[in-house]
Amino acid sequence: MKPKPHIVGLPVYKPGKPIEEVKKEYGLEEVIKLASNENPYGSSPSAKAAIQAELDNLSLYPDGSAAELTASLAAHLGVSSDNIIFGCGSDEIIALIARAFFLPGDETIMADQTFSVYKSNADIEGAVSIEVPLVQGTHDLDGMLARITGKTKVIWVCNPNNPTGTIVSGPALTAFLDAVPDGVMVVLDEAYYEYVTDPSYSDGIKLLDRYPNLVVLRTFSKIYGLAALRIGYGVARPEIITLINQVREPFNTSRLAQAAAIAALGDQDYVEECRRLNSAGLIQLQGEFKRLGLESFPAHGNFIMVDVRVSAFDIFELLLRKGVIVRAGHRLYPTYIRVTIGSQEQNQVFIEALEAALKEQGVLV
Prior knowledge:
Helix content: 25-40%
Radius of gyration: 21 Å
Distance between the termini: 57 Å
Strand content: 5-15%
Shape: globular
CATH superfamily of the largest domain: Type I PLP-dependent aspartate aminotransferase-like (Major domain)
Oligomer: single chain
CATH architecture of the largest domain: 3-Layer(aba) Sandwich
Order of helices and strands: HEHHEHEHEHEHEEEHHHEHEEH
Strand order of the largest sheet: 2-8-7-6-5-3-4
């Protein structure tokens, strides 16, 4: 049985190590996971209550159109219901865009260190990925514009960028969108939108009326704390949403996910509190990195990427042994780890473990 030739050898996405595996492997009772940019404070109590209330309906298929959730989200965002599509996480929307628009040989442009799912889905469809180097961890928008050709179908901009955490400012983004040809789709991935507090950052949803080729992605996995339920969404002009919907599988989001997302949207006080706590945690870690003499990228999501000055894999392994899971393996940043902003207590445990690991590696004395 032969697969498509172009998918042979494609890398398989590797998620952060699960807590249970680390406990078993290292004989630990307590493990802190700061590897997958999950919300350390969990989901809203109202979302948990909505899940509980939905348990008696597990024998029923979900609403394939997610009509109630669509109406709630449309009201929250100030858009029409036909501007929205839901997916099993926003990464399914990425896969659906690739399925709907890429033909073999089409070109797609992205940063050289960004969310890997853009490239993997382009590879699956036989498209050619053009990777433009980041500049100081930030998208080089001029460099991306320079790589547009007649074969370019989609440009991906992750804002804040994963894994570096940097942002593209509003003025830079609109200047870029002004220069992109109308026939080229720009996918603006705002998975960490709700965490950003920088006033120069722009809300991609507000740009949709001005740019008909724009698609904005967001998710309930991050600040809303619903990662286990896998629900994200895309927002775009109705004609684009219709095309993406035509390649979407039925019942791709569950009853539990839809109910929890509706309740989570209704608790914006909880979202604001998570944003406040995240900002405080970010300041905490940045201060500790400065004390340790470590450089990090400007961070605007719920994670930060820091240079540990030795092999990131070595520090990753030492941290595992101390019960802290972070992320390493960024191909262009071999001495950097990415760490999720945890609670104040989790951050302190991480810093103590990191300082000990750096001393073991001779970085600190």
